[in-house]
Design a protein that fits this description.
Layout: H1 12-39, H2 45-73, H3 78-81, H4 84-107, H5 114-120, H6 133-149, H7 153-159, H8 161-168, H9 171-184, H10 192-219, E1 234-238, E2 247-252, E3 255-262, E4 265-270, E5 284-286, E6 289-291, E7 298-299, E8 316-317, E9 319-322, E10 325-328, E11 342-343
Antiparallel strand pairs: 1-10, 2-3, 3-4, 4-8, 4-11, 5-6, 6-7, 9-10
Helix pairs in contact: 1-2, 2-4, 2-10, 4-5, 4-6, 6-9, 7-8
Length: 345
């Protein structure tokens, strides 16, 4: 967490993360250049750079889109999610290099402005062979620029989490356009069959991961039935279902609520982190604070407020324990409102 939007120092974890990322990208370029030299000895250095950066960026995009559902399926993938922004910014710069070299090699030496040439030099939508595939690649680059430019917490705080999240969800629109870019562009070349199969495999893999993650969440996301004992409250779960310093996530009145067990007490808060809408209920109580598994944002269990000097707050809920069952009042308190924890006797 950062205070006053100051730059966060590179921790050991971040350095290792970025070193592995840089090494992976460098190794990919080395292997790609070697394979290209063997299969396409006539290719120029510029052409190799265009192809290497395009494929590297596309592979990274698949990794980025796969991390979210993978973490919902198995928490062991969470360490890869902590610094996913680094992957996104790296992917954008690779795509930018690809676009820059392509713009120069194919459009810079004509009579038209290069950017105008990109928009008008392709064929038409009348048939697949003449589809203007370059437009499908140019548009996503703008989306990736917006995402990279707003990756800092300054924009997250000032745009608000819902707006920021909606903006970054455009990545799926960009992904669809890139699939079209490959299908109508490189996929139509002599060696395009392999690219089409790999692109289809990537798309099917992403869809499958998202469906598996959704299925897992839906199984644990059943709406709790209302009951009249106590009036207006709901029977959330058995006490034994909640592990120490962990939470049971339940859904009531359309909202996910995380019921945490810690130090012989129970507290309930909204399961949506105010940083990036992360799943608080999948986190732990560390040093007396609910800690989001995505980026480490913390909240006091009894108030839903972050410890000073941080200002994030989440709604709180009343809970009670009766005969080994945990009861929840589904009416949320205002974010940051203190609620007396339920004692476990």
């Amino acid at each position: 967490m950062s205070v006053g939007y100051q730059a966060v120092g590179w921790s050991r974890q971040k350095r290792i993360y970025d070193a592995v990322l840089a090494t992976g990208v460098g190794a990919y370029f080395a292997v790609f250049a070697g394979v290209s030299a063997g299969l396409h000895p006539e290719a120029t250095v510029e052409t190799v750079i265009i192809r290497a950066t395009a494929t590297a960026a596309f592979v990274l995009l698949h990794v980025i889109l796969a991390l979210g559902p993978l973490c919902r399926i198995d928490a062991r993938f969470l360490p890869l999610l902590y610094n996913r922004r680094h992957l996104g910014v790296t992917m954008f710069f690779l795509a930018l290099v690809h676009g820059g070299f392509s713009l120069f090699q194919f459009h810079a030496l004509g009579v038209l402005d290069p950017f105008v040439s990109v928009l008008v030099s392709d064929g038409s939508f009348a048939q697949v062979a003449t589809m203007p595939f370059q437009i499908f690649g140019f548009a996503p680059l703008g989306v990736f620029f917006l995402m990279a430019a707003t990756s800092h917490d300054f924009w997250l705080a000032n745009l608000s989490a819902p707006t920021w999240k909606a903006l970054h969800m455009l990545v799926y629109v960009a992904y669809g356009l890139l699939v079209a870019h490959v299908a109508f562009g490189a996929g139509q070349t002599r060696d395009g069959g392999f690219l089409l199969w790999m692109t289809a495999l990537g798309a099917v893999t992403l869809v499958t991961l998202h469906l598996l993650a959704a299925t897992k969440e839906n199984a644990a996301d059943l709406e709790l039935p209302a009951t009249a004992v106590p009036p207006g409250w709901v029977d959330a779960c058995a006490l034994v279902e909640i592990a120490e310093n962990r939470a049971k996530v339940v859904r009531c009145t359309g909202e996910r609520v995380a019921i945490f067990r810690y130090d012989g007490k129970l507290s309930a808060v909204s399961s949506v982190c105010q940083h990036q809408n992360g799943p608080l209920g999948e986190g732990r109580v560390i040093d007396g604070c609910i800690t989001c598994p995505w980026h480490g944002y913390q909240y006091r269990p009894e108030t839903g407020a972050s410890p000073a000097p941080f200002a994030e707050k989440v709604p709180t809920f009343e809970v009670a324990v009766r005969d080994g069952r945990v009861w929840l009042n589904p009416r949320p308190k205002a974010a940051g409102t203190r609620v007396e924890p339920a004692k476990i006797t």
